[in-house]
Amino acid sequence: MKMIMAVISDEDSNPVISELSRAGFGVTRLCSTGGFLRSGNTTIMIGTDENRLDEAIEILRNKCKIRKKAIPNLEMSGGMGVMGSAFPMEVTVGGATLFVFNVERFEKL
Ligand code: 2BA
How far is the CA of 36 from the centre of ligand 1 (A)? Predict the structure, then answer.
């Protein structure tokens, strides 16, 4: 068994989760915050048989849209978080950041 942990945009989370559920995957959604933008994103956990791993990843690929976003220019300020300055910068957001783990044991008690 495999566990996919995917960080996705909040905007994509409902269509992704609906499609995964429709296809019979078990999904857990976690509210998360990106370390760089310090804004909300969604992390989903999908436990699946290895033979359906690519199918789950294909759903993520099809439903997670890549977008450009203008944000205040970011400066890290010694532990005080992210501060804005005058000139916006463009970052790519969306898509999905995936981590795939081997699951040693899976049980429902
Ligand atoms: P954030 O850390 O908020 O990053 C959002 C987007 O900002 C990133 O998208 C990337 O396009 C940009 N970005 C991040 N660090 C940057 C930097 N130092 N300079 C310029 N631009 C930068 P993604 O790479 O697609 O990441 C989306 C979210 O996935 C991240 O949100 C974070 O929550 C998670 N993530 C990405 N890589 C990760 C990793 N290696 N480990 C854990 N979480 C990760």
Answer: 6
